[in-house]
Specification:
Structural class: alpha/beta
Helix content: 25-40%
Oligomer: single chain
Bound molecules: adenosine-5'-triphosphate, magnesium ion
Low-confidence stretches: 1-6, 316-320
Number of strands: 23
CATH superfamily of the largest domain: P-loop containing nucleotide triphosphate hydrolases
Shape: globular
CATH architecture of the largest domain: 3-Layer(aba) Sandwich
Number of helices: 16
CATH topology of the largest domain: Rossmann fold
Number of domains: 3
Strand order of the largest sheet: 6-9-10-3-11-12
CATH class of the largest domain: Alpha Beta
Largest sheet: 6 strands, mixed
Distance between the termini: 59 Å
């Protein structure tokens, strides 16, 4: 079929972009058709976010041209792109924490009355947007108090509230739970039905195949192929992304022998959002912690790790009380890969090396001096294990989203813990690297580390865990092992629709 020019919403012609020696985009040409959902997939660092940012006016390309409905355009700011109907929901949430949900959603485009912001209408419009989207957000809530998932929802409402014709969604579902992902999919379908165009960047290939009309695969900044989604499969996309077929997703499970020592045991933990949780993890055991967003999983993780105030009736692991602080945790052999790399310790302006060794610097200390050679070596080896970048001296801000996530993983490894609390450890990581990380988690456990794994991907929980604990409304509501460990059982317990299962 011959494409008519007017069908093309955005014609991306020969875009090039370099960051220093890194060629992030190289001669990228793609036609994005009006009213279509056009997906971009590729490994971490392939150039997806860079492309999205250029389209949305965050920065200009070095080479090439954007042609919007037949007219060449060059945007000097996101505002300029917005004026031409293009909005970006960025991979990293960029909201003002001190403002409310409503203020963030309509920042800069607030409904006015007599020269003043019309607060009533602001709240009302936000409420309506949230309702339409199926998000349970209070317009008056302070954004700084919201969970990552909720902040992501605010980002999405921001784009919707601006009524853009072309919306770039850069990994919008990475922080959402199954139910919210469903809502998001409805939103995307609804947008396309109403004639909007959606550019969707996602590492969830099932999501891509379900939603997209067209899929472009990027590798090393170049277009590998652009095809109708109907002619692709997960395997074909992975092969194009990696330049090879991928191995099995989940390695064999190696559960600990019965009677293996307990390395983490907390009882009756109380913390904000956590109402009396008790659980145990044995050496070598991977325990999945499942539940909906807001069920208290992250709060529990932070409470155990000492990142949030908490009380517990007891805790074993050679430790008799909660460590009370992250540094206390490290001394007690408890490491955490946090849910939010941005809020929990990623120093964007500091080099990769420092970001990885930050919490374990004492290891490299001799008489007050950091042994740099040893530090670089250990950091380099931890990064290799997580298939991360070996660019030790680059600032973390120069890494793609998925590669930043790998830094947090490497940091936890470096601490050589007995207990690893991993809160969404593979968020934003590409399929190939995910498999590497799964193998690594299983290996770490096999060496005797007890792993508490939090994930919104039930498949990931099922694929890796020896046992699954389900939380709902701050409490443990069910625990599954062996044949009982099924998606149905977990979901039912997470939603509270299960026949009362023993905890
Ligand atoms: N501000 C920057 N400074 C230096 N290099 C950068 C910058 N932003 C991106 N890069 C580099 O450009 C390349 C492409 O990055 P980009 O963020 O577009 O990848 P991506 O496909 O979105 O990856 P991910 O799936 O991990 O989010 C990477 O090598 C990255 O390190
Ligand atoms: Mg990205």
């Amino acid at each position: 079929m011959v494409a008519l020019t007017q069908d093309v919403h955005l014609d991306i012609r020969g875009l090039g972009k370099s960051f220093g020696a890194t060629r992030a985009l190289d001669d990228v040409s793609v036609e994005v058709r009006s009213g279509s959902v056009h997906s971009f997939v590729g490994e971490n660092g392939a150039g997806k976010s860079t492309l999205g940012k250029i389209v949305a006016g965050v920065f200009p390309p070095d080479q090439g041209q954007l042609v919007l409905r037949g007219t060449p355009v060059s945007f000097h700011s996101p505002r300029a792109a917005l004026e031409r109907g293009i909005a970006l929901v960025a991979q990293e949430v960029a909201l003002v924490p001190q403002l409310t949900v409503a203020q963030n959603v309509f920042l800069g485009v607030e409904p006015q009355r007599g020269g003043f912001i019309d607060r009533g209408r602001l709240l009302e419009q936000t409420e309506r947007l949230a309702q339409d989207a199926g998000f349970d957000l209070r317009p008056n809530a302070l954004v700084g108090r919201l969970s990552i998932a909720e902040q992501q929802q605010v980002e999405i409402l921001r784009a919707l509230g601006r009524d853009a014709e072309l919306i770039v969604l850069d990994e919008p579902s990475a922080a959402l739970s199954a139910k919210e992902v469903e809502h998001l999919h409805e939103i995307v379908r609804g947008l396309a039905r109403r004639g909007h165009t959606v550019i969707l960047v996602s590492h969830f290939l099932n999501e891509v195949l379900e939603l997209a009309d067209t899929v472009t695969v990027l590798r090393d900044g170049k277009v590998v192929q652009t095809n109708p989604a109907a002619s692709e499969t997960e395997a074909s996309l992975i092969a194009a992304m990696l330049g090879r077929a991928a191995g099995r997703a989940y390695p064999d499970k190696r559960p600990p022998a019965p009677g293996t020592a307990v390395v983490l045991s907390v009882s009756d933990v109380h913390a904000p959002g956590v109402a009396g949780v008790s659980l145990e993890v044995r050496a070598g055991e991977i325990v999945g912690l499942a539940g909906l967003v807001g069920a208290g999983r992250t709060e529990l993780a932070r409470a155990i790790y000492g990142a949030a105030p908490a009380t517990s009736a007891g805790m074993a692991a050679g430790v008799t009380t909660l460590p009370g602080s992250p540094s206390g945790s490290l001394r007690a052999g408890v490491a955490m890969i946090p849910e939010s790399r941005k809020d929990d310790g990623l120093l964007l302006q500091r080099p990769v090396r420092e970001n990885v060794s930050l919490t374990t610097l004492p290891i490299f200390d001799r008489l007050g001096f950091v042994r740099r050679g040893m530090e670089a070596e250990e950091v380099g080896s931890a990064l290799t294990k997580v298939s991360g970048t070996p660019r030790l001296e680059a600032p973390a801000s120069a890494l793609s989203g998925g590669n930043q996530q790998k830094l947090m993983f490497a940091r936890a490894l470096l601490a050589k813990p007995n207990v690893l609390i991993a809160d969404e450890p593979t968020r934003g990581v590409d399929v190939g690297a995910k498999r590497d990380l799964y193998r690594l988690l299983v290996e770490i456990a096999a060496q005797g580390v007890g792993v508490l794994l939090i994930s919104n991907e039930i498949e990931e929980i099922l694929g890796l865990s020896h046992r699954v604990v389900v939380m709902r409304l701050g409490s443990v509501t069910a625990e599954f092992e062996g044949a009982e460990m099924t998606e149905e059982n977990i979901l039912a317990a997470a939603f509270g629709t299960a026949p009362a299962a023993a905890a």
